[in-house]
Amino acid sequence: LIPCSIVSLEMSQVDLMAKIMGIRHSMTSAKIIKGILDNTQKSNLEEAKTLFLTDDLEIHTEFDLEKIKMLIRKDVYSRKVKVVMIDYLQKISSDKIYEETPLMSKAAKDLSNLAQELGISIIVLSQINNESEKGKGAGAGFKGSGTIEASADLAIRLKRNKETEDINAETVPMQIVITKNKFGWDGTIEGFFNLPTGIYTII
Question: What pLDDT is attached to residue 131?
Fold first, then answer.
């Protein structure tokens, strides 16, 4: 595995690890947490534990921007981390900036600069604004500040049409919309998203 870190502001360490291990073997995280598994699934879970419960993956649950940056530096220097994922940007806090738009702008700029300084990739998840949710507006429409997309090398939006989805379906259509790519192609990829497992399949 490539050494990586996840800063999870949305899920607990236990829930997120169960989700990651479940995705590997198409199991729901709820079944993993509750232990509702057959013998094959138990064997697959042990394999996933061996793979993911190592020094190559670290999960943090820190909310403060400055502390997040400090943790990233520490992981890069001590564990040679190459990829960091933050879930998600709008949950980041600061004891210096309280308004959402200035905070999102600073977080986006700081994380972009940190990635360049350390020579790593930082993947930041974001909510989208109301206009984009309604199918209006240009670009990815990240919530909080236009600086988020401006600071990114690659901006991707996951797009579903919940109005046309079957409410009982486990698998639903989902588009991967690449709205910005400094280094190559942009456009739309069609596929299907499995809601229980979190697995995306490209058509």
Answer: 64
**pLDDT score of 135:** 58
Specify the DSSP class assigned to residue 181: E
C-alpha distances out from residue 163 to 28, 133, 158, 184, Å: 25, 12, 16, 32
The string of DSSP letters for 102-113 reads: HHHHHHHHHHHH
Picking from 179, 133, 174, 137, the residue whose alpha carbon sits closest to that of residue 154 is 179
Q: What is the DSSP letter of 90?
A: G
The whole-number pLDDT of residue 52 equals: 82
Ranges of the chain whose pLDDT falls below 70: 130-139
Q: How far apart are CA 23 and CA 17, in angstroms?
A: 10
Q: How far apart are CA 98 and CA 140, in angstroms?
A: 24
d(CA 57, CA 4) in angstroms, rounded, equals: 5
Confidence (pLDDT) at 113: 96
CA distance 82 to 89: 19
**pTM score of the predicted model:** 0.85
Give the model's pLDDT for residue 24: 87
Tell me how far apart the alpha carbons of residues 118 and 126 are, in angstroms, rounded to a whole number: 22
Supply the DSSP string of 109-167, one letter for each residue: HHHHHHHHHHT-EEEE---B-HHHHTT-SSS--BSS-THHHHH-SEEEEEE--TTTS-T
